[in-house]
Amino acid sequence: MKKLTLVAMIIGGFAAQAQAQSNVTIYGLVDAGLVSERGGAAGSVTKVTSGIGGQSRLGFRGTEDLGNGLSAIFTLETGVKVDDGALDNANSALFNRQSFIGLKSKEAGTLTIGRQYTMLYNAMSQVADPFGAGYAGSIKNLFPAAGANTRTSNALVYSTPVMEGFSADGLYSLGEQAGSSTAGRQFGFGLNFANGPLNARLVYNNRNNDTAAVGATPAKLQDSGRNTLFAINYDFVVAKAFFAYGADKGVNSAALPSANAYGYTVAPKASLDSNDLLIGVQVPVAPSGTIMASYIRKNDKTVNNQDADQWALGYLHSLSKRTGVYVAYAKIKNKNGAGYTVGNNNEAGSGDKAFNVGMRHAF
Predict the structure, then answer these.
(1) Residue 34 CA: distances (Å) to CA of 50, 140, 181, 226, 314
(2) Which residues form the Porin domain (predicted)?
(3) CB atoms within 10 A of CB 89
(4) Are 185 and 174 in contact (CB under 8 A)?
(5) Strand pairing report for 273-285 and 289-300
(6) Is 263 exposed, middle or buried (0-12, 13-18, 19+ CB in 10 A)?
């Protein structure tokens, strides 16, 4: 109740400021529907779920013109559950999705500080995946999007201005563990190109998995997690084609979304050396529909050889620029004891098959 009261106070305060200064925007996404999952140890699961295509959220975005092309900016964004009205976060943070402040210059670029998305996840959700990292066909089911690969706290992010279609991003996240300047830190960078129908990104993410000594508990040194991803899409008007290829090496480079959803005697193992491939398409259907389809392959290069393939098909029908209804289906084939599941944007899923039907509204 205290959190909900605080959210209400913040909404009221920002709304008043938005009316007074016209530089604060309240925005969000309301997404909910029915999810039916099959094939896991939990058996047949049918439920009402929030955030199938994209996590339902409430956000505040602000900017102030400081003159000479320089602006102060901020974003505060929290996840919400439409099915029961609760806050949607795992770490009890109020603004668990994004919380940052920074400066934006037309000539020098943008520098922001706080909890932010990684270049790796932005490339997956914005460029690589015809499902936009949501619905049953989400790229997150097999590509490495778990935990800090999606967003990270204590981060400084710099983005260059766009020049002839090219731009670049860099991220450094402090681990903030006493006694170590490197334990838990994360860094990444991305090279982007967008020009007309072509959109491409090459990104790298490096996550330090060490933990510093705490009292009598000694420090733990581990291999870092390293992810490289190339993503591209091209709009042919009659269809939009998608392609992505990734390489994942080291601890936590490809964490499993679900620990042991199938109840195996020997639980699946997260790969320390794998490749990811996605081929997909969006096809516009008159007057206001879009067919989405993709094939994803996880190639585990370790001795476990726990590969997986996913096929997915979906349809989004726009009732307006902000409102749409959707249906999606995906199936995963696990090999050699692999344990990947068909989830959606907000859930890892419980089995190897899932069907979604729902509605979303952006404001």
Answers:
(1) 9, 19, 46, 36, 14
(2) 10-336
(3) 17
(4) yes
(5) antiparallel
(6) exposed
Q: Is the separation of the CB atoms in 81 and 96 below 8 Å?
A: no
From residue 31, give the alpha-carbon distance in Å to each of 1, 165, 208, 297, 344.
Answer: 23, 33, 34, 28, 12
Q: Which amino acid is at 280?
A: G
Indicate the length of the chain as a whole number: 363
CB neighbour class for 8 (10 Å; exposed up to 12, middle 13-18, buried from 19): exposed
Among candidate residues 47, 45, 78, the one with its CA nearest the CA of residue 358: 47
What secondary structure, in 3-state letters, does 125-182 show?
HHHHCCCCCCCCCCHHHCCCCCHHHCEEEEEEEEECCCECCEEEEEEEECCCECCECC
Per-residue pLDDT of the chain (363 residues; tens, 9 = 90+): 444 454 454 455 544 444 434 499 999 999 999 999 999 999 999 999 999 999 999 999 999 999 999 999 999 999 999 999 999 887 778 999 999 999 999 999 999 999 999 999 999 999 999 999 999 999 999 999 998 999 999 999 999 999 999 999 999 999 999 999 999 999 999 999 999 999 999 999 999 999 999 989 999 999 999 999 999 999 999 999 999 999 999 999 999 999 999 999 999 999 999 999 999 999 999 899 999 999 999 999 999 999 999 999 999 999 999 999 999 999 999 999 999 999 999 999 999 999 999 999 999
Q: How far apart are CA 242 and CA 83, in angstroms?
A: 32
Task: Return d(Cα 325, Cα 319) in angstroms, integer.
Answer: 7
What the block records as the tokens of 268 is 């699946």
Cα distance between residue 296 and residue 310, in whole Å:
5
